[in-house]
Amino acid sequence: MNGLSARTGRERPARAALTRIFEPGDERAGRWLREVGPVELMRRLTVADGSAETLKGMTATRLSGYRLRASTADPERDLSDVAGVGGRFVCPGDPEWPSQLDDLSDARPIGLWVRGLPDLRLWALRSVAVVGARACTPYGAHMAASIGAGLAERGWVVVSGAAFGVDGAAHRGALAAGGATMAVLACGVDVAYPRGHAELIGRMVEQGLVIGELPPSEHPTRSRFILRNRVIAALTRGTVVVEAEYRSGSLVTARNAQRLGRYTMGVPGPATSGLSAGVHELLRGEGVLVTDAAEIAELVGEIGDLAPARRGPVLPRDLLDPVSARVLDALPRRGAMEGRDVARTAGTSTDEALGRLYELHSLGFVEREADGWRLTVVRTRNGGARRGDT
Asked: How far is CA 228 from CA 29, 100, 160, 184, 188, in A?
C-alpha cells in the first residue's frame, strides 16, 4: 500500500466506513483489507456483483450481516462528527499513525478515532500502560496513582482504559503531576464511558489524548472491552498490572503484551488478597516485579534510566571500621569489661583495643566504668533503654 494513500482520495472515508461495519480485532476482515485494500473491500460489501463471495472465509450469513451494517454507514457524517468535537481519524500510512500497532498484523485497527492535540505517534513512542481492577482496594488505587504520577514526572505517557479503579487512579496521578496521559476507549471517542468519568475524560481531551477504534456515538460491549486491550498492549512499551483477579481483563492486556514482545510487569500485593492473585500468577511466569515508577522506567527506558539503589537505613555503627566494630561487639550487653579482656575477645592487642575504646567513647558508643568499659545506655522515647544500638 502506498504510504500516502491513507491520507488522500477515497481511502480515508472507506476506512471510516469499515470501522462501523467490522468489529475491532476482526482478523478475517484484516486479511481482506490487506489483500484488496479498503476501497475495493467497501465496494464488494456494498455492490451485489458476486465479488464479495470470492473473499476467503466469506459466507452468506456473514455477508448479510456486513451489508446490513454497510447500509447505515455514513463515513462523511462520522468524519464530520468527530471533527465537530475537535477530533480526527488517523489511518495506517498517516504520519501520526503509531507503527507499533502494525505488530498486531491482521488484527491491527482499521483506523483510530482521536481527540486531543498531541501527536499520537510521538506520544506512543514513550508510553507505558497501567491497568488493573475496577473494584480495586485503597492500596491498589494508591499504587496506581503513585506510579502514574512518577512515570509522568519522568516524561512517560501513562496509557490506560479510563475505567473505574486502577485505570482512573493512574490517569489522575499523571494529570496531577502535570504529565501526559492517554485513554483507549471501547466506545466512540465522543461517548463518556463510564459516565462517572465524564469529567476525567474531558480533562484528558484537553490535556492529553483519547482514542478508540469505534466510530462516533458507538457504545461499548463486553467483547469490545476485551478487544480494546490488545491496542493498549501494542501501543505501549510495557504493561504494568496493579491489581487483578485470576479472571481479569487486565491479565488479557498483559498476555497480549507478552505475545507482542513488550515488557510485562506486576505490582505485588498481600498474598491473602484475591485482587492480587492474578498479579502474583503473572509474576510467577514471565512478569517482572515492580514497586514504583523508577523501577518501571529502568526496565522499559533507555540507558541511564536507572532506579536508585535499594537499601535499608544506615545506622551509625555501620560506619565503623572492621576493628572498631569487633571491639564494640566484644563488650557484653550488661556490665563492664576490662580493656585486656576486650582485646582478647576482639582478637587484637591491648593497646589497639584501648585506642579503639577511646575512639568509641568519643563517638558515644561506650562509657568508662571504674577500670572497665561498658556499652552506652540509650534512652528510648517510651522511657525504655537499649545498649549499643546507635
From this structure: 16, 15, 10, 7, 12
CA atoms within 13 A on the CB side of 277: 8
Please give the Cα distance from 198 to 326 (Å, whole number): 65
- Rg over CA atoms, the chain: 31
The answer to whether 113 and 184 are in contact (CB under 8 A) is no
Strand duo 337-338 + 366-369: pairing: unpaired
The answer to whether residues 123 and 112 touch, using CB atoms and an 8 Å cutoff, is: no
Q: Could you report the per-residue pLDDT of 178-202, keeping only the tens digit for each?
A: 999 999 999 999 999 999 999 999 9
CA dist., res. 168 & res. 197, Å (int): 8
Give pLDDT tens digits for 301-351.
875 556 566 667 777 888 889 999 999 999 998 889 998 999 999 999 999
E-strand stretches of the chain: 87-90, 112-115, 127-131, 157-160, 181-185, 209-212, 238-241, 263-266, 288-289, 337-338, 366-369, 372-375, 377-379, 385-387
